[in-house]
Each structure stands twice: as structure tokens, then as C-alpha cells.
Amino acid sequence: QLQLVESGGGLVQPGGTLTLSCAFSGFTLNYWHIGWFRQAPGKEREEISCITDGNTYYADFVKGRFTISRDNAKNTVYLQMKSLKPEDTAFYYCAAIRVRPFSSCWRDGDYWGQGTQVTVSS
């Protein structure tokens, strides 16, 4: 059974740094990508970043501030978030995205974690 568990959320001041973790089990990255998404109150869920076997992708509004990485040995994908802004406040989710031929990871997830809250406020 595929399972994803996020951790690392919390309260951080503007300009601060936070690193989220997505620990996964029940699958390997040979057949799945991992994406990070977020949803703020009253807004639609949006994809922030995703990682494949050899590539990373970022939404324009996080480029240069967020970094996605993975540790295959630990079955964990990370999202390091720097220079956080109040508008980054949201519930953050990681998701497993099925590998498809000729398709990037920039699409909706197939399996989801429970999410973790990130609040950027002074």
C-alpha cells in the first residue's frame, strides 16, 4: 500500500527557512515521481515543485527560494523553503505521481499524504 507522511511544518517568521519531509513507503521512485503541493484557505490547491529520476521542476513563485531533493536510501523527499513570505502560508502536501511515458511530473498526484501546516507570520 502506498503511503506518504509529511512532517516539518510549523510557524516561521518572514524571511525564515523551513524544511519539509515526505517519507514514503510501499513504492519505489522507479515508477513514481513525488510532487509538493499547497493549498491556502479559500484558494485552489497548486503544485509547487516535483522531482523525477533526473529532473526537478518549480512553480515560478518559488523558484530560487525552494529546493526539492530526495534521499533514495531513506525513502524521503525534502522541500527546503527559504526566504519565506506570509503568502507562503498554506497546508502543504506531498503526492506520488505515476510515471507516464512522455509526461513530466507537473500534474496532479495519484496518492496523497495527510499534509502539514506552514504558517509564515511575525
Characterise the protein shown here.
The chain is mainly beta and 122 residues long. It contains no helices and eleven strands. A hairpin with a 4-residue loop joins strand 5 and strand 6. The chain starts with a strand and ends with a strand.
Keyword list:
122 residues, mainly beta, 7-stranded mixed sheet, 4-stranded antiparallel sheet, 0% helix, 50% strand, globular
Task: Show the helix and strand layout.
Elements: E1 3-7, E2 10-12, E3 18-25, E4 32-39, E5 46-51, E6 56-58, E7 66-71, E8 76-81, E9 90-98, E10 111-112, E11 116-120
Parallel strand pairs: 2-11
Antiparallel strand pairs: 1-3, 3-8, 4-5, 4-9, 5-6, 7-8, 9-10, 9-11
| End-to-end Cα distance | 40 Å
Structural class category: mainly beta
Number of strands: 11
Percentage of residues in helical conformation: under 10%
Approximately how much beta-strand content do the residues carry? over 45%
Quick summary:
By secondary structure, this protein is mainly beta. 0% of the residues lie in helices and 50% in strands.
